[in-house]
Amino acid sequence: MAFPTRLQTVLTEGRAVIRSGIKIVCTTGTYGFWNGKGDITVNGQLYWPNTLIEVSEPVYGLGTAASTFTMSLVAKRDSGLTPDKLLLIENEGYKDAPVNVYDFYFDPDDRSFLWAEPGAYGFIDTIDHTRESGDKKLTANVRSGAIANHRDGYRTASFEDQQLVSAGDQFFQYASKVQHETFDITFD
């Protein structure tokens, strides 16, 4: 999908309407929420309204360390998110569920959807269940996508492993041998 010319125009004019969206991919369902009115569909995903979405600013670290942020949803009938919809997420397997946060851009003249700009992403670690003025509130504690930098896979950079991927490929033919070689270095 190409960046729309109309979006560039309204951004330059300073008139773009910007809303936030959250997509959560749980074990049996994908849920979308946005801080606007009415249901919308973006890239095939239905987003339910919730005017009370809160996403904290990610806490960034140095290097490839994972950061954390929180996102909260309050079940309040007049906010668009009814308690029965919030219950769907509570009943899901949400541990390590991928989360994407978006900025949604709309045309200020006709309110048509223009663009979804990806922002923070990560994986749900835990969800805190609280009440806010009598309304149910879920606060997801999210580890940023950088957590994947530290996940070990089962593949290795070895000749044997490469043969499983592409038989006959010689790219790693010396890889496993080099790690076991001993070199004698003398200085004159």
Please provide a written account of the structure.
This protein is mainly β and 188 residues long. The protein has 2 domains: 5-150, no CATH class; 153-188, no CATH class. The chain has helices at residues 5-13, 83-90, 159-165, 175-178; strands at 17-25, 30-34, 40-42, 45-49, 54-55, 68-75, 98-106, 113-132, 135-144. It has a 9-stranded mixed β-sheet with strand order 3-4-2-1-7-8-9-6-5, covered by helices on one side. The longest helix has 9 residues, at 5-13.
Sum up the structure in keywords.
single chain, 15% helix, mainly beta, 2 domains, 188 residues
Secondary-structure map:
Elements: H1 5-13, E1 17-25, E2 30-34, E3 40-42, E4 45-49, E5 54-55, E6 68-75, H2 83-90, E7 98-106, E8 113-132, E9 135-144, H3 159-165, H4 175-178
Parallel strand pairs: 2-4
Antiparallel strand pairs: 1-2, 1-7, 3-4, 5-6, 6-9, 7-8, 8-9
Approximate helicity band = 10-25%
Mean pLDDT: 80
Largest sheet: 9 strands, mixed
Q: What series of H and E elements makes up the topology?
A: HEEEEEEHEEEHH
> End-to-end span in angstroms?
63 Å
Number of helices: 4
Counted beta strands = 9
**SS class:** mainly beta
Shape: extended
Indicate the low-confidence ranges by residue numbers.
Answer: none
**Main β-sheet, spatial strand arrangement:** 3-4-2-1-7-8-9-6-5
Number of discrete domains: 2
What percentage of the residues does DSSP assign to strands (E)? 35-45%
User: In angstroms, what is the radius of gyration?
Assistant: 23 Å
Quick recap:
By secondary structure, the chain is mainly β.
